[in-house]
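Quick one:
INPUT:
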């Protein structure tokens, strides 16, 4: 296959919009050397050494996986071990300072080598990682990455990546190796910001900031946080960080808490502080007005005014909560203390030519634009952790997001640990996005098969709820979406057929007399007035291309654009009639996925009917 020629580096935008350093980074996307290692010879033959370039007999375009057309390879055969090689040069700023190497995501596990030396290993295909390569970086460099992605391993969180060669029904092509951006940046060797966590409190009109800083404090080390809105300064805070060097020193009164500090610790970081937002400058984030504040952090020497690090970020003032108990109906989901009816699309996160990776930032933005064009206000990311650039555009455009990750398909200690570790990393990575309002841990019992027949699996599911709630108490948690609920903030139900079985009252709904293959709640767990959301409905297929080249599949098939439109409208009217106790839905789905033709768009993002027609109907419904 011939490689597509990119006029510029593909996906050249800064990959981490919520933690951006402007001028001290190099994008490593583009052409890399590449090789399959089906016989697992690479480690023994030391392919990571500089002189082993001849072992790499292919070229690949990063950040696209080898299974995708945009990679320039585009084969679907099983190749469980692959190698990448990239030569790059850096300026003296990189060799004189501390240098960090970042991978957005590599599926599934990898070993990283620089200039012939092993530097790091990482496991997990959805969430990225960073490596301090200060001790390995040179002016001329050879970066080598060995990736192992077991094609048929059902204990890894693989989501919709099918373990047979050809995709079928609801399963899609596999994704192996680097599928998000790769970049390096240099930071001060003295100190720099490792991460920042921002929690908004709309009732108190303030934000709580948690920071972690590499390096010890000293009397002249300060942190400045400047908040602006629409280019106008809103608030500013200056924190003296001398306490980082010695816990026994008197701390700045602005510091709320030093996490985990004990008197014997000499470097108590991370730490937490608050910044008040003036009431006359309080603008809430919601789906109609996605107001965002800019915030910049600066680490500097208050004597010399030398800047050690500068990071740009943003945040939204918004709160997600549940209403109080009611005698006549169930709880509702509240956005900024007001009820919000959730009109969600299911998004699987595949593109026809890039698979997991969008061909461009504009392609991401267009997907989100379509959600609004159809009259919806949110989406459920399904069986995949999405690119931070995707979440950035949801923040900017006012689209609600249910965060999710790919599940495994077997129940074992290894599978459990893999899911827990990666989902925890996703929550940490994406915590600052105001668009995310829900975390969904498991889907339809995937990874806990037969949970209705075994207490051990029920214990695991309920523990997932409490674990994720401890990591992020600010959002709603769904333990197992669709059925097998234990402890959950939302009662979610999946229904694709037999819509005449929908309950006609809240009392009838509570009996859950619906066409579900499994119990909605496991034994010893009961419905506790949680908001009810039908988180998978629809699935009306239309083979819009009708090329005959693929075997099309859908839950129910429509024969024309007009029939598809009418089926969708009629279905949503059924839910409008029940909006007093059903407080949202997730329609399957926004766009087709290969053989699955349930989308309102084709996989190439062509609308199957005019989106404005559906928006006009939806604007008359719900609340």
């Amino acid at each position: 296959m011939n490689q597509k020629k990119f006029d510029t580096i593909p996906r050249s935008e800064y990959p981490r919009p919520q933690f951006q350093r402007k001028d001290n980074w190099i994008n490593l996307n583009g052409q890399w050397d590449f090789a399959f290692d089906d016989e697992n010879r690479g480690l023994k033959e030391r392919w990571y050494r500089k002189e082993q370039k001849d072992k790499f007999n292919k070229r690949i375009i990063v950040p696209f996986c080898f299974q995708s057309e945009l990679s320039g390879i585009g084969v679907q055969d099983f190749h469980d071990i692959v190698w990448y090689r990239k030569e790059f040069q850096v300026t003296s700023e990189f060799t004189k300072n501390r240098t960090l190497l970042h991978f957005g995501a590599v599926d599934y596990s990898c070993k990283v080598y620089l200039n012939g030396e092993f530097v790091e290993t990482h496991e997990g295909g959805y969430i990225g990682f960073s490596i301090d390569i200060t001790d390995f970086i040179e002016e001329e460099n050879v970066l080598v990455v060995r990736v192992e992605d077991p094609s048929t391993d059902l204990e890894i969180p693989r989501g919709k990546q099918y373990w047979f060669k050809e995709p079928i029904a609801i399963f899609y092509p596999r994704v192996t190796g680097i599928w998000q951006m790769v970049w390096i940046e240099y930071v001060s060797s003295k100190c720099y910001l490792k991460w920042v966590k921002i929690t908004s409190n709309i009732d108190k009109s303030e934000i709580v900031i948690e920071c972690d800083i590499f390096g010890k404090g000293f009397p002249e080390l300060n942190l400045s946080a400047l908040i602006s809105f629409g280019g106008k300064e809103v608030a500013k805070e200056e924190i003296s960080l001398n306490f980082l060097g010695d816990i026994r020193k008197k701390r700045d009164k602005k510091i709320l808490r030093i996490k985990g500090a004990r008197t014997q610790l000499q470097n108590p970081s991370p730490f937490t502080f608050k910044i008040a937002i003036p009431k006359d400058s309080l603008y809430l984030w919601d789906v109609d007005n996605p107001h965002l504040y800019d915030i910049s952090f600066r680490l500097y020497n208050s004597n010399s005014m030398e800047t050690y690090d500068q990071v740009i970020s943003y945040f939204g003032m918004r709160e997600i909560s549940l209403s109080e108990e009611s005698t006549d109906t169930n709880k509702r989901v509240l956005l900024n203390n007001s009820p919000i009816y959730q009109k969600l699309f299911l998004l699987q996160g595949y593109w026809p030519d890039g698979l997991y990776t969008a061909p461009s930032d504009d392609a991401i933005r267009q997907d989100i634009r379509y959600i609004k064009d159809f009259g919806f206000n949110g989406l459920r990311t399904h069986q995949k952790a999405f690119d931070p650039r995707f979440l950035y555009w949801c923040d900017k455009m006012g689209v609600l997001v249910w965060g999710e990750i790919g599940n495994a398909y077997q129940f074992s200690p290894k599978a459990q640990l893999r899911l827990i570790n990666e989902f925890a990393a996703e929550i940490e990575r994406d915590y600052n996005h105001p668009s995310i309002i829900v975390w969904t841990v498991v889907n339809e019992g995937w990874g806990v098969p037969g949970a209705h027949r075994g207490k051990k699996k029920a214990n695991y599911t309920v523990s997932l709820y409490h674990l994720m709630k401890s990591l992020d108490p600010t959002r709603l948690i769904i333990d197992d979406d669709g059925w097998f609920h234990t402890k959950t903030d939302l009662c979610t139900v999946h229904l694709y057929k037999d819509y005449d079985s929908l309950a006609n009252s809240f009392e009838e709904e509570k009996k859950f007399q619906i066409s579900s293959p499994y119990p909605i709640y496991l034994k010893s767990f009961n419905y506790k007035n949680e908001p009810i959301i039908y988180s998978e409905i629809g699935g009306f297929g239309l083979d819009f291309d009708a090329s005959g080249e693929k075997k099309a599949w859908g839950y129910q098939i429509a024969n024309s654009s007009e029939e598809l439109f009418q089926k969708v409208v009629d279905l949503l009217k059924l839910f409008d009639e029940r909006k007093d106790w059903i407080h949202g839905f997730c329609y399957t789905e926004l766009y087709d996925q290969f053989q699955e033709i349930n989308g309102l768009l084709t996989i190439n993002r062509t609308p199957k009917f005019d989106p404005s027609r559906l928006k006009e109907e939806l604007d008359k419904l719900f609340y």
